[in-house]
Specification:
Blueprint (H helix, E strand, L loop, with lengths): L5 H4 L5 H14 L5 E2 L11 H13 L11 H15 L8 E4 L1 H13 L5 E6 L4 H8 L3 E6 L10 H7 L4 E7 L11 H13 L4 E5 L19 H4 L2 E6 L12 E4 L2 H12 L7 H12 L3 H22 L14 E2 L16 H12 L1 E2 L1 E2 L9 E4 L4 H17 L2
Parallel strand pairs: 1-10, 3-4, 3-5, 5-6, 6-7
Antiparallel strand pairs: 2-8, 7-8, 9-12, 11-12
The structure holds pyridoxal-5'-phosphate.
Length: 395
Amino acid sequence: MSIISDSLKRIKPSPTIAVTQKARELRAAGKDVIGLGAGEPDFDTPDNIKNAAIRAIKKGDTKYTAVDGTPALKKAVIGKFRRENKLNYSTDQITIGTGGKQVLYNAFMATLNKGDEVIIPAPFWVSYPDMVLLAGGKPKIVKCTEQEGFKLTAKKLKKAISKRTKWVILNSPSNPTGAGYTKKEIQSLAKVLARNKKIYILSDDIYEHVRYDNFNFFTIAQILKLKDRTLTMNGVSKSYAMTGWRIGYAAGPRDIIKAIGKIQSQSTSNPSSISQAAAVEALNGKQGFIKKRSHAFKQRRDFVVKSLNNIKGINCLKPNGAFYVFPSCKGLLNKKTKLKTDTDFVKKLLEKENVAVVQGSAFGLDGYFRISYATSMKNLKKAMNRIKSFCESLE
Ligand code: PLP
């Protein structure tokens, strides 16, 4: 009999973390590896935020806090939703967790019974299906094509709904494609969801502030008839370059928020008191950093998309958010190149040219790969040259 539980056997380690780890190992072994696998901004946390954390330490904010977040941070989160999304919440509709990841995990653990279905549009963030599986639920993957901009359509949503559907996940802008849903697109999904009154919506807005070309961010809770059935998750990790601080939050129905707190009270307790103080400053302090940073990301995106589309066999859509692109390598998967799958492509690229990217199949769509351009322009230039040489060598 194995010591490992059956529920753990249902899941696998995160493939994106695995690629980052592999790149780290190769680098430690002396190889000149360019890692384009990481899902975090390469910028540092702004100084005003760091200073707020230092002040918190000096002031003695070093003790347990309320399990689901300090009153000050909850107030800052309420202010953020009101200011940026025109959404009003009260304190008992807010929860703070150790990263957006913990909030999502708790939400599934708190709500899923065995066999409950969660609609997950693919390509998806790698953790959604495994979190659902761990909680005993059933991921219902709906593949969204390149022609659909990798976005869920009302027709596909309608088809995926069953009596067991408990949640549908929306992630805009998306990891791994960068695709953002327009207000109109969200409205058409909302029409379907308004008719299916038992389904809850999990909106993962973690990339809200990483967007380009005047893309208007719209979140589904803004459709007020769905607000009572929507859990909106967000956090400071990506917007404020604070991945290591581990602060995420969510707003939504009181019963779910309370249940999330209950799980947290018996598992991790409160997120770090110091990180919470820093997050208050991130949300309430000056926001100019976001625009400047988005400008730098946009330049990188434009460069990467253009470079990739100049490579024979590669095709890349230009996304309007996040710091990822999701190019197709289908044009290079054939007998002549001896590459059958995106995993072959990614493995060979790492072996031959020391560039680490993640295979599309890890995100639920074969024939693609994900590039994170959250790295310097210098690295990106080198990486694009190497990818080009690699693809040309296959001819
Ligand atoms: N949701 C998506 C789509 C993400 O890409 C990530 C992080 O990679 C998260 C949630 C989790 O963010 P956090 O670092 O706040 O846990």
